[in-house]
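Justification of computing resources. Each target in the renewal requires a structure prediction run like the one illustrated here; the chain below, 444 residues long, is used simply to show the kind of job we budget for.
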Amino acid sequence: MDMDYLVRFAQIHESFRIPELQALADLFGIDVGFADYSQYSPHCVVRLRDRDAARNLISRSILTQGIYELWGTGSTYDELHADTRRRTSNLWQNYKSASFKFEVQAFMATRSLSEQNDLITSFSYLGFKGPIKLRNPEQTFCVFEDWDWGGSAPKKIYFGRFVGGSSRSILDTYTLKKRKYLSTTSMDSELALITANLTHAAPGRLFHDPFVGTGSFLVACAHFGACTMGSDIDGRAVRGKNGRNIFTNFGQYDLVGGYLDMFIADLTHAPLRGSRFLDGIICDPPYGVREGLKVLGSRDGGSKEVKYIDGEPAHLQDHYLPPKKPYGFEAMLNDILDFAAETLVESGRLSLWMPTANDEGAGDLEIPKHACLEMTSVCVQAFNKWSRRLLTYQKLRGDDVKDQTHQPISQSSNIVAASTTANELNAFRKRYFEGFRGPPQQVD
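Resulting structure tokens:
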């Protein structure tokens, strides 16, 4: 029989919270129902089959703090006590002699120690006789109060028994403040771990980041047991500097078993076999703001004469910098989805970040779609005038693909005119430097 449980979220990245839990439920094959949730509250009531399912669901979550067996709920303490008696009077005997402690957590309010003591005493009817232990008790019970800002009383109250904790404590381990190999574009460790959860990183799975940078995403995937590999058009990021590189980060966290290799390539020239072998693709592609996007090749699309340095072809030397041509952001999104459709196994996942303006109705960048990929979630991290969205897709089974014709979000040519500017290839970049003033304009 299904039971109600209370999830205590961290009050951050609100649009990511439910997608992360749903992704973990899908990963572990757990049926979860969301019975009561608001993004403005850290409390969420879910329906699960049993306590083991509750522990598994939350065990590797980053955006939760704990999950509790819901013993009662109400808008007043009279309602809460009545509901607790109705739901759980048959359970009290199970914990009568166990050591225990009570906690009181008030969201958007504070409770003095005397108020907390009075609230805890009001549960004396439970009849617990075991010793009170503030450290490592056998059972922990918690009262959760949900207040409106400046309210005179809580608007909702929950009472629950602690069942299991999350993985949020690992954030201190992976914080970028302690990371040995970094760059200015290294992804925040919390968001990297959340993205790995949404993409189903797990033991026995192979993950690839085609814009690997300093490897933040792959470190997160390796933490959850996946084998990882990555590539980047910028050879400096892959090679590293001062004796440190991506492998250094894997060694720092004792994750070298999850490191396969890194190589220098762009997405359109990846030296990978054209077959379905990846379980996950995870990336934060460049937005083209600091400098225009580039891809390997010449502007006219033609080949160049081989140049020699000291009798050796220049392109075979260690410090060779290959020619690059301008690249449109929409073209890059199309290429990412095509690459995922070609290389992901069935039910494999793709997670990618993309920017967007905050002004209402700003259609400068459409969410890309592909006939072979089903979107599972869209999460938003808002800044001042712009946001970035985390898009997660799942590869469809062959029989589930209804339309085999892929309609790209733009019809960008691979050949870019020499006079074409970075702004003409990237609507977001253009609006960024305009300060997001006025309505978006269509980029040809």
